[in-house]
């Protein structure tokens, strides 16, 4: 069985790729086959570290043979082994590299998928890196006019932002989702994304930003005439009037129930903070207006 001993296979492959006095050109074709066999052998033997190195080398071999698709596949194998080993930096690097290689083949969907796989693995261990990978995965699909394929990625990134309590970033990403939905005429998703962003701002006690977001989104005809717009309008009115019961009632509405779970959870906790203070602020603003009218 010496021929199938992964240690021997990798040593033989390394020799074939090293130049010496007797070897003037590397035999990547033969070496790559040996690296692949070694990678599979090490993986079967549960030696993740050596399997990972073998697949990295196999990936390099396929690149040298001008086969980026196969190189990308091997990079993904190396990435999943890095995951087993808990090497989070390598997980991100390898999936990024796999994505670049798929891009070289002109294949945006697998390129985006590779980044998404990395993001899913890193959500708990390195959430900021996960968000970056989701964002880049979205960008690849957007550039290729495949916004509709990115909806799950917008959802996933928003969810990680909310877990990290980065509410402004979450709302900004929801607005980006709304824009992408607009480009592919997914009006229902667009309206849901805008209402979700308004809810996130309210949850984060940023009434001014929620109001601005509502006003900006209401310039868009599809949102202006939607159930989601009416729902947002009632929520904001509840805040302006300091009506806690009304806010809670709207948060239980079917329009809110049709949003993503992570947003529903925030909505059901509204109002956060002191709403009566907002009511007195609004009243003070009104008094000032009345006085101005008299002069």
From TrEMBL:
One of its GO terms (molecular function) is syntaxin binding. It is found in: Membrane. It comes from the Eukaryota. GO terms for biological process: intracellular protein transport; vesicle-mediated transport. One of its GO terms (cellular component) is vacuolar membrane. It is a peripheral membrane protein. InterPro entries: NSF_attach, TPR-like_helical_dom_sf. The keyword Membrane applies. Keywords: ER-Golgi transport, Membrane, Protein transport, Transport. Belongs to the SNAP family. This is Gamma-soluble NSF attachment protein. It comes from Nyssa sinensis. The lineage of its organism: Eukaryota, Viridiplantae, Streptophyta, Embryophyta, Tracheophyta.
